[in-house]
Amino acid sequence: MTRVAGIPTSRMANFIRFQRDPLGFLVDALPMGDVVSLRTSSFRPTYVVNSPDFVQEILVHQEQHFRKGRSSDVLRRTIGDGLLTSEHAVHRQQKRYLMPVFYKERIQAYAQIVQEETERLADSLKDGVPVAMHELMMQLTLGIIARSLFQTELDEDKAELADAVDVTIRHTASTIFSPIIVPFAIPTPGNVKHKKAIRTLEAMIYEAISKARRNPEEYSDSMLGLLLDTKDESGQALSDQEIRDQMMTMLLAGHETTANALVWAWCCLERSPDTVHRLHGELDRIRASEEDSGKPLPAYERYREMDYTKQVVQETLRLFPPAWAILRESERELIMLGDRFPANSSFLISPYAIHRNDGVFGDASAFRPERFDGGTSQWARFAYFPFGGGSRGCIGSQFALLEGGLIMGTLAGRFEFASLPGQGEEKPEPLVSLRVKNGRWMVPRSR
């Protein structure tokens, strides 16, 4: 028996609904079946994938038969041929030489940078003075990624660079799901603004590459130093363009997603006083233990003590996964779990929707970090997958979890945050990653 169900609405109705409310469309499709056909062209059919075992077929068991396709074509305008956009053999080669960037010993060193940058931010906050939380988190994570991976201090450039990232993200998102992709060479207002933003980011990147080539010993412990030492399969060093593409990839994928997740976390905590109470209890116990011993824990050791803080981060990523949609296109006809799919089929996988399955999580729309007391193995492998999976799963997932946990633990240990009145309920904005629409002004209160 087939596990593919046809959506009852027309192709045009589906298109209009998805354009207006992609998240609502995908959540509504969740109970329709394991795989839902959108009744598009028979030559290029499109499916929404809801079942974890089908997700595993696409991302793991038969991943060699899929490409990222359209999404990579659009992202390539900004990040070039980096890890996020490369395919098959090139992707495997790039992942091999980038893996050491995220080895455990490097993650431990990055933890101290996260701690220092977050403490610096906390010192700048004033009790009762509202802050634009999205901009604050964007600048914080941008500074962390630049310092930990590129060994570059941004300081006064943070706001300008964060704004450039925002422009590229918005324009990329509007293009990925547009029915018509305007060539990047055409000087539309959007393309002109996008290219200017890319130049702003490239200026920082190429300056860092130039400094590293002049003084390689100063960058030996950074991602940039690793890239300078990397040789391709023919034994040639990577060109500045190749290094630029990987740095741009990490810059965009490595900080905007974490910043968005953190803004969602502060919003969720505000609505959950019991969670806040338990979170503060854990952080206060860690601080008291440090005071008793007479010395602070190293940042990585402190993170290891933050069990409940980690659960808050995991639950935030369940409800508001930055990578809200994963796109794949089949390169050949496939049989998956007994069903046949034509070549050039498109598959839309939404962690945002799949994470809201009441049958798996029970009261799935509620924010309850204690769900993760038993770890993630209590669910099917792809019932919870905020970082994707398979060979294309997020290479920096452990760094992202550590960064999110340490930022939250550091700031929540010193402040509570409440939304400035008059903003209404926060709403998700599905761009390349999932944002709080219009950002969120919040008021820090010292604890």
From TrEMBL:
Residues bound to heme: 394
Keyword Heme: yes
Keyword vocabulary terms for this entry: Heme, Iron, Metal-binding, Monooxygenase, Oxidoreductase
SUPFAM superfamilies the record matches: Cytochrome P450
Pfam families found in the cross-reference section: p450
Gene Ontology MF term list: heme binding; iron ion binding; monooxygenase activity; oxidoreductase activity, acting on paired donors, with incorporation or reduction of molecular oxygen
Keyword Metal-binding set for record: yes
Cofactor(s) required, per the database record: heme
InterPro entries for the chain: Cyt_P450 (IPR001128), Cyt_P450_CS (IPR017972), Cyt_P450_E_grp-I (IPR002401), Cyt_P450_sf (IPR036396), Cytochrome_P450_Monoox (IPR050196)
Entries under PANTHER family matching the protein: BIFUNCTIONAL ALBAFLAVENONE MONOOXYGENASE_TERPENE SYNTHASE, CYTOCHROME P450 FAMILY 4
Protein family according to the UniProt entry: Belongs to the cytochrome P450 family.
Designated name of the protein: Cytochrome P450
Organism: Cohnella luojiensis
